[in-house]
Amino acid sequence: MKKSLLFSLIGAFVSLAATGQTTYLPLRTEEYNLLDRLETKGGMLTNDFYSTLKPIPRKGAVAFLKEITKPMPGGQGIDLSDIDYDNIQRALSISGEWSETADGDDGALPSVRPVLKYFYQKQPDLVHVNTGDFFLVVNPVLYLQATKERNVDGLKYINTRGAEIRGRIFNKIGFYTMVADNQEKALSYIEQWEARHQAFPGADYYTRNSSGAYDYLLARGYIDVGAFNDHFNVTFGYDKQFTGDGIRSLELSDFGAPATFLRLRTKIWRLQYENLFLELTPAYVRAGDQRLPRKYASVHQVSMNVTPWLNLGLFESTIYAKPERFGAEYLIPVIFYNSVARALGADQKTSLGISFKAIALKHLQFYGQGYFDQLQPGKLGKGWWGNQFGVQLGAKYFDAFTLRNLDLQGEVNIVRPFMYAANDGVSDYTHYNQPLAHPYGAGFAEIIGTVRYQPIVNLYLSAKGIYSTRGTGIPGMLNAGNDIFARYDTRGADEGYGLIGDQKLNGTYFNFNAAYEIRPNIFLEAGATYLDRNIGGGLTNYPASTSFYGGLRWNITRREPDFF
Known about the structure:
Blueprint: H1 2-16, H2 30-42, E1 53-54, H3 58-68, H4 82-94, E2 127-130, E3 134-149, E4 156-169, E5 173-185, H5 188-197, E6 206-208, E7 214-227, E8 232-239, E9 242-243, E10 259-268, E11 271-280, E12 295-307, E13 310-320, H6 337-343, E14 348-360, E15 364-373, E16 388-398, E17 406-415, E18 430-431, E19 434-435, E20 444-453, E21 459-471, E22 504-519, E23 522-535, E24 545-554
Antiparallel strand pairs: 1-9, 2-3, 3-4, 3-24, 4-5, 5-7, 6-7, 7-8, 8-10, 10-11, 11-12, 12-13, 13-14, 14-15, 15-16, 16-17, 17-20, 18-19, 20-21, 21-22, 22-23, 23-24
């Protein structure tokens, strides 16, 4: 009886999954900036997607793009440039399975000259099959980049080769997978980061060969099922997530390694509610092939368009302190349940966050995050170790100074010492020896500015500058709260902790990048990066790093080493 009831429930759910399933835009693709830009220029937040919760569904992105280009009553529509219209057409073609032409074909633009008749029949895709009940896209993945770092012998390089597949079956199940083999000879400061953390940034398992190159596999994928007329989606897979509207995230970032996840998204009215369950790897010491332990986390998020121009969000994250144990209570999909459980003595680390996003004057966007743990207002100003918080404030200016397709962004991130740390070596906010949020850890202040300009179709110019200062601690001394992997019960005192410790690492970073898209998702790219770091007081112990690079990127997002 129980078995038949279970199968009946599963069958009922699958029968409800009519066309609600989707696949998602890979993080940091050009479509994200386009959607952000158009939403702001439209002067009204959309309910087709919620930019705070990433990745964004392709289906929602296409619905928004189609809606925003419709003629408005009275002839008053959004002020778009010719380049904006080309970018919209490009985005609709890349996610063409969710739009339809007048003759019944999908929205992927046809190629004038297919390759060998069967390949690139559609402009964005090597193989594109759409029979109505079955949709499939297959694309190559290639990242070939050579870098010359000044005062360092030889060339640095990225060599990535793989394939990407996405599709849907019977309009009930969406799926995506990307597998690529990577060899990378990294810049000197990335090698230093790897040595400190015993991890390669953004990757999970990796090796290093005799020539000094890092070898690792990129493997990501998921299946997605939707139900209740697009109101509910269940996604299970292995990938990265991102929370927020900024360059960085203080709540959940895509900086580190991917993780196994189960994600539930519920959309009702102007509100989206997300439950995210993660299987993570606690800190470990690299020692050859070994079975790594596991730990578990749950993240609950609410994002709501409270007015046509203002979005507010709530965030709760919990890392459970017991490795190798998954409890059924971890799956309770109720926000703030874990905060109450922790207050009652549950063995876990639970932190809370808030976020906002506001658009104004059809050109400006303001956003921010706050992330908090163990706050006691009565001890503010005393440097109490337990007052742990991080704050982000940022702004975006689209079509800056009336120059079409010039977009500016500025962001400030501040995180107090001991934020993200724990006292058990398990429930710290980390995964695979990498931070789950900001790559600097804790005890820092950072200012970031970016410029994006698209002077002509297919040419993308960008520049980024970062200035940061952070505590480093003093080797051999007690924990000062900067190392999020260190147990906070090894601190030397309870009070007296300023934002930055006695020993400060100051860093200045600049990057300029030019990318020309020779065909959808195929970029020729060149740029330069500069990094200077010094210990406060003029004691410089890191040589400046200047590098120049160029290469080809095909169906993969750019990797920018803006951490140190």
